[in-house]
Write a structure and sequence with these properties.
mainly alpha, 64% helix, single chain
Amino acid sequence: MASISHFPPDLVASITRGALQDADRVCQFLDALGFKPTTGRPVRLPANFLSGLGAALRLLHWEQSGLRAHLDCGSPTAKEVLYETFRAAVDGSGDQNPTVSTLAFRVMVLSIEKLAWTAQSDLGGDVALGVADEESIMEALADFLWAHRPG
């Protein structure tokens, strides 16, 4: 097994936190659908279905929060991913379906490249990274300084 020690700790923590949140969303989603084991035995679902569902629900969370990181770079909407994930599960193409099989990875990469790694732990939410024009930054700084001027 390869060591992750050469990766920044904030990155590792962000990926771990995202995976745990994805798992929680999938459990809540399946529970809301009434999908519960009827026996004492665990229910087994295909890994690609669960990872695709997790990715779709993360995208849905982003969209509901107003984040467009995935849409701005041409990725599908949460609704499209959710549809494709279920379609692939129904027709059995989940393992061969490139949309579903690589989606969780692509969403993770987007979160690494487009979102602040520590925003969840520091602020309790996702923060999209972007480039602001100098004029907007200067106006925001001037407004802040004016609002916080002494006396």
